[in-house]
Amino acid sequence: MHKVLPEFDLFLISSDTEGLPLSVLEAFACKIPVVATAAGGTGEAVKNRETGMLSPVKDAAKLAENALEVINDPSLKELLIESAYHMVSTYFTLDVMQREYYSFYKNLKEIREQKI
Prior knowledge:
Elements: E1 11-13, H1 22-29, E2 34-37, H2 42-45, E3 53-55, H3 60-72, H4 74-91, H5 94-115
Parallel strand pairs: 1-2, 2-3
């Protein structure tokens, strides 16, 4: 994806249901603006007008409106790109994920040992 995504002008995801799609984080990392529906966990990463543009699920008109706004407003596009890149590089790097998983499993172990 790191070779394909940089060729995009916009990453559009129109899911009806979703977890937190890795593709959104990949787009953030490649500095591609994201326009998405507020399906599932997508809204946890795509903060409207901060890290991307969020549209209601099944609202194709709003999705298209948001996409056109990003394409036609260079300052908005740059704001979204920079905020999203900052978020992904702060919270979703390999080092951060390793520390978080280590902490999570260590806490589980401690809880289990307390119950025994």
